[in-house]
Amino acid sequence: MSRGRPMSAFLSMSAGCLLLPIFPAHASPTPSRGPLAGAALPTSGEVPRPTHIRGWNNNTRRVTPRAEVRDRIRITSGGYATRRTVALLRARSGSTQWTRIWRGRTNAAGRLTLRFTTPDEGNWKYRVRVRATRTAAAKTSKSRRIVVWTPQPSTVPGAPNDPAPPVSTSLVYVTGDIGQCGGEADNTAALIDPRTGVLVATGDLAYPNGTSADFANCYDPSYGPFKHVTFPVPGNHEYNSGGAGYFAYFGDRVGTLEQPWYVVEIAQWRVFMLNSNCAQAGGCDVGSAQYTWLATQLSLPQPRCTAAVWHHPRWSSGVHGPDASVTALYELLVTHGTDLLLTGHEHNYERFARLDSAGAPSSSGIREFVVGTGGQALREIPGNAPGSEVRLSDSHGVLLLTLGATDFAWRFAPTEPSAGTDSGFEQCS
User: Fold this and answer.
1) What is the pLDDT of residue 393?
2) 202, 372 in Cβ contact below 8 A?
3) Pick the CATH number of 30-38+47-148 from 3.30.420.40, 2.40.128.190, 3.60.150.10, 2.60.40.1930
4) Where exactly does CATH 3.60.21.10 map onto the chain?
5) Are strands 349-355 and 366-371 parallel, antiparallel or unpaired?
6) pTM of the complete model
7) Are the C-beta atoms of residues 155 and 142 closer than 8 Å to each other?
8) Average pLDDT score over residue span 163-171
């Protein structure tokens, strides 16, 4: 540089020259082949370019214990592929504690084969994390679910089930509107312990259409571990495929396509599992097969406490509102002193006072719970129906019922620690 010439002049002159990045001989980048070839590397001083992870499969996968899993991915940034450091992270479903289980480095074309061995059991989620460089931003992939299972005839989706086990526990988990792939079912499943209670599922279990594939991909990865202690009713989404996937998954212990209703004894309660998809179930009115079956059941000697379960709420402040198609069934239950009605359909939580057949408060009426918070996207509650006592739409969650011989207690457990909850205790009528 000539003496007296300012540095700015030198920089100005340099701007017109072609400046090439200098690399060590052993680390010369190789341009990627295909449509990304020819893209330029970002130069020093530029804002880091976004990183893209290509080929990462975030669908659910079912594997056997200690399975060897391989996935091929490609990392690019600004249309250019270079060597990047990649970590594979793992956490249990429902947990936020991630652990790095593997680390590798892409080749010059940005490609890398991920290799890992699955655990012996459980539901897991995996993520890929790409380390930032001077010119490219860090990137974390979406989660992928891995379900570790031991093939047995009673647990393969679509196979017949073993008979329902004796139910002596007094704890009942309740939730519905569950299995949306990519939804929150993993988080609500983390609130359920099949060693301590049974699950009552209030319908719309496998979105979008209740097919066998929907049950295998969107319900079973999260709720499959509870299958042997689950007492479900079908929702309207199960009938998008005619109900075949639902009955194939749970077997004939939950009724049949022709008679989709049943009764179960839980602790010292009798619980009638009914079908509010009236058009598909052959009707819900007086004289229908379902009404006649229920009337016959109720004519038998009953325990002090009884409950009913179906999908569509008789009373609701939600977007669907009250469902009058189940009026005859509701009136029959009121006449015979039923204490509880458990429903779903609305993607929120709502508790009602005891209401009679006309919807008026009555100590001899039925207390209804709407629990549609199992995993599908939540909905706001636009109204405030007569008799509604609690309305929550700020978190997914599970209702915990403790059934006594003459009473019951309830607590709504949200997945979000700061969300609203609800609890109470009541004697049976």
Assistant:
1) 95
2) yes
3) 2.60.40.1930
4) 171-427
5) antiparallel
6) 0.66
7) no
8) 61
CB 373 within 8 A of CB 390: no
Residue 413 pLDDT class (50, 70, 90 cuts) = very high
Q: Give the pLDDT confidence of 108-119 residue by residue, as tens digits.
A: 999 998 888 888
Query: pLDDT tens digits for 199-217?
Result: 999 999 999 999 999 999 9
Fold of 171-427: Purple Acid Phosphatase; chain A, domain 2 (3.60.21)
Which one is predicted more confidently, 273 or 119?
273
| The token pair that represents 220 in the structure block | 């079973």
Radius of gyration of the chain (CA): 28
Say how far residue 379 (Cα) sits from the centre of its chain: 15
Q: Which residue has the tokens 């931003």?
A: 137
Order across the sheet with 397-403: list the strands.
230-232, 198-201, 171-175, 397-403, 407-414, 422-427
* CATH 2.60.40.1930 domain range(s) in the chain: 30-38+47-148
**409 near 395, Cβ under 8 Å?**
no
CA–CA separation, 253 and 260 (whole Å): 10
Q: Is the distance from CB of 122 to CB of 148 less than 8 angstroms?
A: yes
Contact by Cβ (8 Å): 353, 368: no
* List of residues 6+ apart from 352 with CB closer than 8 A: 315, 367, 368, 369, 370, 385, 387, 388, 389
Half-sphere exposure of 101 (CA within 13 A, CB side): 20
pLDDT band of residue 10 (cuts 50, 70, 90) is very low
Cα distance between the two ends of the chain: 98
